[in-house]
Amino acid sequence: MLPISTMNLLPIVSIWFIAVVATALLILLVYGSRQLIERNVPQRWMMILFSLRVLIIIVFVLCLLRPALSKWREEKLQPTLLVLADVSRSMSEAGGSGKGTRFDETVGVLLAPQGIARLEQAYDLHCYAFDDSTRPIAPDTLASIEPKSESTRIGQSLESAWNQYRSSSGATASKEAARVLLISDGANLAGDDALGAAQRLGLRVDTLTPAPGHDEADLPALHIADVQSSNRVLVNSETRFRVTLAGRADGEQALTATYNGKPFFEHSITAAAGDVETRVIVTHRPKTPGISRYAFSVTPAAEETMPAYEVNVHVVDAKFEVLILEDTWRWEFKYLRRVLEDDPSFNLTAFLARGRASYVQFSEPERGVSLAGFPEGPAEIDWFDIIVLGNVDPDRWSRRLASAIADSVVERGKSLIIIAGPDIGRLARVPELGPLFPVEIGARTGVPIEGPVSLQINAEAGAMPYFSVRPETHQMLPAQALPPVDRIYAPIRKRPAATVLLEAQQHANAYGNLIVMAEHTVGRGRVLYIGTDTLWKWHMYGARDKARGTLHRRFWQQTLRALAPPLAGSDGGNLSVRTDRSRYTAGERVALTAELYPLEASAAVKIAATVVMPDGQRLVVPVTPDPRTPSKRIAEFRVFAPGRCRITTTATRNGELIAESVTTVDVQAALGESDNIAVNAGLMAALAQATGGTVIDAV
Q1: Where are the domains of the chain?
Q2: Sign of the C-alpha dihedral, residues 15, 19, 20, 22?
Q3: Residue 584 in contact with residue 666, Cβ under 8 Å?
């Protein structure tokens, strides 16, 4: 297509302003010319001066308009195909088909009659040979290459090839119009992160892998490579185990787990092969204090002698003190009281108003706090870990009580639960308590919206433990539709940084669906707003679990444990530590990620890691916040000696240990390209699957 030219103006100021300036200059030009005529200037000199002035005005106006001439034409660009051929020595091994080497099998697919010619017609073809470096080659030289290099870096080669292509093509380089054909046996002996590199680039990677030259039985059987968990947890609290599986799945196999000899978990295994690992999250609630033994195994085991992977967890018996203040007898108080009295992890103290100046106190015999009367200030409030405010009238309180509650949340890290009622507006107007609310309370929030009101779990609640939006993480609460409630006390909107947990499905205002439940962090503590006093209906209408536990009971157990502040000398949460892989080659870099669960428990926490190398040397690794996700901490170190490497990660607050985790990684001696390396079809298939590519059969 012929080029098309267009003239465009790029004015410095507005066109109208330039027009006014040009008009003014022309008027001045005419006026100046008349003055010259009146003074009898020779006509020849006057015309010369007039022409120069006109030329100056034209140049000045053009400078203001900044005209630009553009030429363009349409061209249909071909999609780009980058062909990366592995030329390491392992590709010279005999292929599984018996028709030459691995290199011959795979490259032969491209060199089939008119194969390269068809690719060049359909794609903008760029070929590269790679081992521990990447270099461009001509497509017709593929057949003459002899694989003999001593290293393979698949991840680095992918990045290098793309960078070289982008440098050569300039602005026309587009990831959306490009894809990669990776020809390799997957023997990534240098151990770089091939999967991570492919995902970072965002390119579709098709893989062409030779047929295995060894029997499939030569690949390692499916086994448990590592189990990572907290060493100490609270009794009846959710304990998380991260189980790493590696090897070849043989038929129908499952991961099973036992607690003190009793099975409690089973998970079917779908795919794990070669260097591709599968991670499974297992959760459990230990019921009795002491040392609990957890055993993880693969069933049926590939080898009868393969032992179970055992982990011992110290279960700590600690109780939280809960204070409930309520001025109105409501059914929610009755059912919540029953939940707390039946839960061994919580001690209840409650005050229910009876008249203007009298209260009835409810408390458990084994409680750790004994109050002689209604709390008055910090001396009474500081004993409690969780404070629940119902439909209360703060005008009846001591002047010091509101500030004591606010101080316990903001400064001491306690938790506050607000169960709304008709007097919610009075509570929100208290200067010390109003800023603690995760929502904005309006003049009509105390006027209930009668139901039934259907509810929906907000997407933001996915990472929270209140509801099982992700069943693999919170198995106790089934992911299901919640029963409707009879009424809600809807706030105006959430406050910045607050998380909406529950919304009304069919009621909304100018800011979206009406909020039924929201929470946020204030200072060192947390505040939960519950905009209904009819959650007790979940006791009758909600689904029950296998132990006949009601939805109402499970919700409150999850909520109270999520809001319970860290206890001195016990776990302030589950410290989740993971490495990018569980097996490394000597000389490789280990990437460590640490995260304290729940996320709110990580405030003012210092995390440190100590590595014991296979040769006994100890290394203290600095752990720093992840710039992309500040709630996570990252660290890196290298392993040089083969064997098992032990990583101990600790979380401390104010110099006191609150969580600890131990994980191990296996380090193998560096292999050479001539060590009869097996084809790693699992890695190649994972590369294609992770990037949306295709696995091509070389046979």
Answers
A1: 4-72, 80-216+678-697, 220-317, 320-563, 568-672
A2: positive
A3: yes
pLDDT in tens, 214-272: 544 455 677 787 787 766 677 777 787 888 887 766 667 888 999 988 999 988 876 54
Cβ pair 507, 485 in contact under 8 A: no
Three-state DSSP at 508 gives strand
Q: Which residues pair with 596 in a beta bridge?
A: 575
CATH architecture under which domain 568-672 falls:
Sandwich (2.60)
Q: Is the peptide bond before 630 cis (omega within 30 degrees of 0)?
A: no
- The predicted structure's pLDDT at residue 545: 57
CA distances from 604 to 158, 171, 304, 566, 608 (A): 40, 46, 48, 12, 13
Mean pLDDT of all residues belonging to the chain:
80
Helices (H), 567-612: none
Q: How buried is residue 459: exposed, middle or buried, by Cβ count under 10 Å (0-12/13-18/19+)?
A: exposed
3-class DSSP assignment, residue 309? strand
Contacts of 531 (CB under 8 A, 6+ apart): 420, 439, 488, 489, 490, 491, 514, 515, 516, 517
Decide if 526 contacts 438 (C-beta within 8 A).
Answer: no
Q: Which fold has domain 220-317?
A: Immunoglobulin-like (2.60.40)
**Quick one: which of 637, 654, 659, 655 has its CA closest to 646?**
637
Least reliable range by pLDDT among 259-268, 275-284, 594-603: 594-603
Instruction: Note the CATH number of domain 80-216+678-697.
Output: 3.40.50.410
How many helices (H) and strands (E) are present in the chain, helices listed first? 13, 38
Which tens digit of pLDDT belongs to each residue from 617-649?
Answer: 888 888 988 887 777 888 888 888 888 888 888
Give the single-character DSSP code of 359.
E
Q: Per residue in 507-563, pLDDT tens?
A: 999 888 999 999 998 887 899 999 999 988 888 776 665 555 678 888 888 888 888
Q: What is the DSSP string of 158-191?
A: HHHHHHHHHHHHGGG--STTEEEEEE-----TT-
CATH number of 320-563: 3.40.50.880
Nearest alpha-carbon partner for 647 in 632, 633, 665: 665
Instruction: Output the pTM of the full model.
Output: 0.44
Residue 402: what residue type?
Answer: A
Same CATH fold assignment for domains 220-317 and 320-563:
no
- The two tokens of residue 680 are 């790693």
Q: Which two tokens stand for residue 211?
A: 């047929």
What is the per-residue pLDDT for 544? 62
CA distance 355 to 514: 34
**What Å distances lie between residue 315 and 290, 384, 598, CA to CA?**
5, 22, 18
96-117 per-position pLDDT tens digit: 766 778 888 888 777 766 777 8
Q: What is the dihedral of CA 559, 565, 568, 573, to 10 degrees?
A: 60
CB 565 within 8 A of CB 415: yes
d(CA 337, CA 362): 9
Exposure string over 218-231, b if 16+ CB within 10 A, otherwise e: ebbbbbbbbbbbbb
CB 80 within 8 A of CB 124: yes
pLDDT digits (tens, 9 = 90+) for 155-191: 888 889 988 888 887 655 566 668 899 888 887 766 6
Cα 453 to Cα 105, 216, 482, 483, 539, distances in angstroms: 65, 58, 10, 9, 16
